[in-house]
Amino acid sequence: MKSIISDLRLKYAEKTWNETFQLVRRCMDKSRDESKPCELLGRSLERLQEVFNVSSMNAMRSRLEMIAKQRGMGFHITEATCYLTADLFYLEVVLLPCGGVEEVKVAPHGGSPVSSESLLQLLRSKNFADFSMKLEGLFTQYNIPGDNDVKLKLFASLQYLGKDLQVLSHLSRVTEDSDPQMDMITNSRIGCLIAGKEDCPLTIQFYTIPTDGMKTSVAQIPGMEPVVQAAQVTVSPSDATHKLQMASVIPQPPQLDLQGYPVFTPLSEGPYETFPACFLLKLKPAIPMMLSFVKKLSQITDVTIPDVDLQWAPLPKLLQRCSLSANSHGETLDEQDTIFTVPLPGDVMHSYIFPGAAWEVPAQRATVMDNIPFTHPAHVPALLELLRHQCAINTLLRSCMCTSPGSARDLHFEVLPESDTSFSVTFHRPDTDSLAVCEHFPHIFIKVLMDISDCHQINCSLFGAGIGDSSMDEYVSSVLKRCMSVPVTLQALYSKIEQITSTPLSPSRTSTAEAENDHSSPSITTLTDANTTFSQSAAVPEDGFTISGSACYAMSVAKSELLSEINTSPAVNPYPFTPVGVFSHWITNNGQLSELI
């Protein structure tokens, strides 16, 4: 054996990499068992490809052939042109003698080849890894299930869907934001629609953080950089059969209902066919969603989302795992509670405590959704409003999870769930020096209830402020809606309270505050009571304020009081779209979402 290896080493000692590469290819072509290709030789070939300098036409051909096989595509050569083929599209790569690339074209089934600048630049820069990833996305875009006849029909149905979404995006509406791009993304019926091209799928941008004057302060917080939430529109196989359109379902010219939405062709009259498939919104990035929101998805689309594949966990844990920031790992206290340290402009540090016991309840279960199935273009506006609603909740909670190194915290806050669309933040008011003065001043803690009715309606209510200023709720709500950051909002509120309480109260303001205190009739209870504003399990580090003993008292705001505050607001339908004959079965007579049983 040693002699054979020595002879081989001497034989190929002066051979070039290109000759060695061709030898491996010949060995692979002469496999003894065609049903079992040599995996070792295949991996060797791939490793050689990675280090081989592509400086000739043959080398470029070999590299493209390997990438095509890795992606499950066919590969053909005609002189200086390579073809990477799939069932519904093919890639045409025109090569130069030196190994360079002159042009890259993408041709969908039945369409003419169209130049792709993005793929061309990737090959010219020899960035084969990104080219392979781009090709994988392209293959997924056209990877439609079924035999050839079904694939062609589903491909045509997807194109008709895209045309109807384009019509929806062009319907006139009232502008709500001064920034046109921001207004299109967050306020239009289906967001900012990016028309699908041959080398990328149809994409909808539907949510991002506000970009007004508050952005400067928010951008200084790690993890709060604006990120555009998007969804790619494609088609996917389904266990159940669904009726999908085989032509446009919006009559021309569009007839609008009282809410400004087009009237769609009814399912009983339109050009529909039944397929074991459905349309799909592929979320980029994936979105953690509450259980109640996942159920509403099925209500809108009438497509069952299988619970088997969903992994459930408390919403804050999922937000922490899916956070785009590398600095989102909080400290774990008592194996349940988690504390995050958030830096703010002006060298101010906040700590936010998420009590584990409060968020572990079944009502706060959530799962990460990356695909939303649907069957009709009429579903898209309502789906996007629901996704925007969840994104608004996630954005506010995630703003409390941008952890910064260091242990010095100036202010401490406890975050508790109140319902599936609201949570509260409790903190120590700035004008009380000691917890031992509770009998003389009962409002030791201030609780801010943040109610997110939908992505456009966010209201804050203060409990225990004792300031007697009814405009404070509006002030906090306006700041929160502008910046979508809990730390920035609470810092503004904290400064506002300091400013108000540092000014001596006039007799009229004193009487107003006393009247408010008498009217509210706060109950005084020990901190061990279940209704106290700070849960006993929420431990605070030594550098923070530690509450212990039964001698100190705090104002208790019962959960029923908070829920009654939420329920007193007028009922608003956050998803007001009701197309005829499509999903009207989940809308009641007064336009409200029907309750789940």
Number of H/I helices: 17
Tell me which CATH architecture of the domain at 53-141 applies here. 2-Layer Sandwich
Structure classification = alpha+beta
Global mean pLDDT: 76
* Envelope shape: globular
Share of residues in helices: 25-40%
- Report Rg: 30 Å
What is the number of strand segments? 20
Main β-sheet: number of strands, strand sense, barrel status?
7 strands, mixed
The CATH topology of the domain at 53-141 turns out to be: TATA-Binding Protein
Low-confidence stretches: 213-219, 434-441, 505-563, 565-572, 576-597
Sheet-strand content, in percent, reads: 15-25%
Strands across the major sheet, in which order? 11-12-13-15-16-17-18
| Distance separating the two termini | 75 Å
Instruction: Write down the CATH class of the domain at 53-141.
Output: Alpha Beta
Features:
597 residues; alpha+beta; TATA-Binding Protein; 7-stranded mixed β-sheet; 17 helices; 23% strand
Describe the protein's topology.
Elements: H1 2-11, H2 17-29, H3 39-51, H4 57-70, E1 74-78, E2 81-85, E3 89-95, E4 101-108, E5 114-115, H5 117-124, H6 128-141, H7 148-169, H8 180-187, E6 192-194, E7 202-207, H9 215-219, E8 229-245, E9 272-290, H10 291-301, E10 313-314, H11 315-321, E11 331-333, E12 337-344, E13 348-354, H12 356-359, E14 365-374, H13 379-398, E15 411-419, E16 422-428, E17 445-452, E18 458-463, H14 472-483, H15 486-502, H16 507-520, E19 523-526, E20 553-556, H17 559-567
Parallel strand pairs: 13-15
Antiparallel strand pairs: 1-2, 2-3, 3-4, 4-5, 6-7, 7-8, 8-9, 9-14, 10-14, 11-12, 12-13, 15-16, 16-17, 17-18, 19-20
